[in-house]
């Protein structure tokens, strides 16, 4: 289990190594064409040191990588984005967001799919403004109104990934406790549940409810997120959120274990159609 930046360096290095190999180049060849010492290429590929975006761009040019989507993804892994800045809007909130949250958002912005188990609150991508504010205020007791405003803005801006082209595919399994926990008062909760019903009808969103009647399940160990990325599964990562930080799991065995756990949870949950009806019933006070 590692922090996000270290995981990203390792994943970036592994992908650059694969691209170099596909280009038929040795590490010595790549260093010579880039005008570097061979040790620099080795450090980048092993993830032992940070990589400047300019260095990533140069290597991608050396390897003949012109796919804009792949270039953008690898630049995000280096800690930035390419192009006109649309994909790293969160930089404007650097003074408010901790590094681990910025890291999470950058991965979310480039992922093609997201699977999440939520056991306590509605997923951030589906929260209403009022619900988001109530959750944030509870998590950051004593925070100023200005900081709360900024964090809610960030939460709502993140939701643009569901409206992008192509949109992020979101598959969420919600423990029934998410629907029963009154956040922000009855009216806020009612609007939030209505929002979930609306979201469940979107083609890019799959919502399933794990009812209390399902009993104990593997998800009682806590919520998690699995990000999947376009073109390669080698960049997939599991994210665990904690009170003060986030941890990332990248090993293939970990990814397989969490993917299997998520599939098991989904199999015990209500179907998407049944879940939509269940949520509507909760909104009506059933």
TrEMBL record:
Residues 16-70 form the HTH cro/C1-type domain. Pfam families: DUF5753 (PF19054), HTH_31 (PF13560). It comes from the Bacteria. CDD domains: HTH_XRE. This is Helix-turn-helix transcriptional regulator. It comes from Streptomyces tunisiensis.
